[in-house]
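Example 3.2
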Amino acid sequence: MYSFTTETPLAAPGGPAGIHAGVVHAIGRRIVRGELAPGEILPEQGELSRQLGVSRTVVREATKVLATKGLVESRSKRGTVVLNRASWRLLDPDVLAWLTEAGPDPDFLRSVFEVRRIIEPAAARLAAERASPSELAAIEQALEGMATADGAAAYLAADVQYHEILVAATHNDHLVQLVAAFGPAFQAGLRAATRTVRAWPEYAVSGLTHHREVLDAVTAHDGERAARGMEWLVDQSLDERISGAEPGE
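Structure, written as tokens:
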């Protein structure tokens, strides 16, 4: 049975809430990293509380939180069982953070960009039909932010804003909410992948060119060209980021 040792103190500013969060992170990280394999049984609550130096109540509540994230499940006569990846709530912010904190995973990035390829060309097509002058100006402003960014973090913030405004310009509430739900995964994928970019200025110039092409098509109300441009943009981003995230690179 796995034995827990904390790498950092579980206590955090704010009292019990910080300790509770610390237990959730201590166990969740180990599951996502593969240190706890699917099917493995967590120590019983008394033993786990002893190992982590917290109360049984904190352990019990933390286990409930992990269950809502799809990482564990309490089973009669067996205890708390670690679940496989197919059960994880991959859009959960904590799960996303644990997935990306150790470095980009090519399979994770690929799945994120495959969803983008399904959604964003259609969004660009609708935006070309429906975007208002103020929305076009806001997308232009986001593009300018990308152009003037002095590093990957600033570029990423402007890039995310560009895509968010483009989706909002579809004026489709269901699509906007769908992308909002997927947004943390999208941003996590971009953050992880951006860290792998080695030739930063060249990457930024290439990205600006393709984002400009999409915006020009949207401004011209050319839905098909906007969709093709966005599809190409997502494909190129996937190729560049996956190649940068391959193990051993």
